[in-house]
Amino acid sequence: xxxxxxxxxxxxxxxxxxxxxxxxxxxxxxxxxxxxxxxxxxxxxxxxxxxxxxxxxxxxxxxxxxxxxxxxxxxxxxxxxxxxxxxxxxxxxxxxxxxxxxxxxxxxxxxxxxxxxxxxxxxxxxxxxxxxxxxxxxxxxxxxxxxxxxxxxxxxxxxxxxxxxxxxxxxxxxxxxxxxxxxxxxxxxxxxxxxxxxxxxxxxxxxxxxxxxxxxxxxxxxxxxxxxxxxxxxxxxxxxxxxxxxxxxxxxxxxxxxxxxxxxxxxxxxxxxxxxxxxxxxxxxxxxxxxxxxxxxxxxxxxxxxxxx
Length: 309
Fold this sequence. Notes:
Elements: H1 5-28, H2 34-57, H3 61-85, H4 96-105, H5 110-118, H6 121-131, H7 134-147, H8 151-174, H9 188-193, H10 200-212, H11 231-242, H12 249-266, H13 272-301
């Protein structure tokens, strides 16, 4: 196998996280949907293997870049999600009361926002659709950067996501929180006005997990645990920052993420401060990934791979 420096960096993180996941699952004696996770891991490994084939055998560097990055992205999503669940049940008390006080000081109240949006059901439905574009956006950017041959930019993108996710998990583990949807009820008229991705019932399920932990881990029932800092916000920042300056792609990504800011609050059930925290985590992750890639840049110049423009 032949990995580029940035890819090796992510691979090492994957191995460490996978080992931690295995140890913690064994220690906590948590039953796992082995078949469900094996199929997802298989997809990631297949993409990485296909990338290796096109890099080593076919000498098609750009296709290899895209496939390997997509595979590593899938694999990290899996091991990162499992790692996040290993902090259940939470050791520390939730800090949502404090976060809601901060929101109140800024004049933000989640139920009032949802009540306002319910007056425009078409808009709430649109935000529902926008909310679920976060991961597809990242995959599109991975593929575009790969096929453009921008190796260093692509790997800085991957590292930003990996570092950002790990920072968010660590912060959440030390200061557990579950978002506004876990501590507010909504009128039935609001719940029926438009589809809501993360409802108060979803929030109640998070509080049960926080108290009781997980008794069976499966990709079919994994919930988004982290409220602050909002990782959806981190992903939106990644899309806007790393999207190639393409005549069509750039305006589409910018427009989607202009609405994503509101979708995160409405559909994600977040505190407003969660988004501010997400921007901060992205800034730290971007700085750390940039510093890492600068240290690795000389290694890229010694290999015959497409370089960042």
